[in-house]
Each structure stands twice: as structure tokens, then as C-alpha cells.
What we know:
By secondary structure, the protein is of the alpha+beta class. It has a domain at about 20-90: Pnp Oxidase, Chain A. Helices cover about 25% and strands about 25% of the residues. The strands form two sheets. A three-stranded antiparallel sheet has the order 2-1-5. A two-stranded antiparallel sheet has the order 3-4. The longest helix is centred in the first third of the chain and has 13 residues, at about 5-15. The chain starts with a helix and ends in a 24-residue tail after the last helix.
Amino acid sequence: xxxxxxxxxxxxxxxxxxxxxxxxxxxxxxxxxxxxxxxxxxxxxxxxxxxxxxxxxxxxxxxxxxxxxxxxxxxxxxxxxxxxxxxxxxxxxxxxxxxxxxxxxxxxxxx
Length: 111
């Protein structure tokens, strides 16, 4: 049995785990950035809380401090342009929203 054939049941099981793709955006002072995230889960209703997985070396990770504003945008399957745009990541200070039309509802980070 090939390695690929051996891993098919594992891939099928992993594919059944609820998942999605998200753009997480945050503001730090006047700077804004965003990143593609694939692991975001609701973890509490009261108070409303989410948990997300972010690599330590992502600049956005250090911006997510207590009381820091952030936005989680749920992507639709057709939004492959957003996957490509945010998938590469952004260095600290690098503009993340050039060429995109974004909203800032109630002063929140871009969505």
C-alpha cells in the first residue's frame, strides 16, 4: 500500500472537521493589518469569545492584546481573491488593504 493510500482515511476524517477560512483584521494605533486564518472557533457564549490559532512569528499576533479591536471576516468559497491576497501574510507596517474596498463599522478594524 502506498503512503498516499495509507493516508486517505486520515485525510477523509480530517475533512469532516468543521472548518472555514477567515480574514482576521486588527488595528494597532493607526496601523491596520490582516491575515488569512483557517482555525477560528467559538469558545464561549457568555461572555462572547473566540479562539484562534496564529503562528508566533505573525506580526498580528502581538497586536491581539486584551481590549485590542479586531474583526473576523468569514469568507465564502467564491472569495478566492481574498485567500490569495491575505494568504502570503504581511510584514509589520506593510499595507494590507491596498486595492481592497473595506468598511470600518463603528470604527472597527477593516471588514
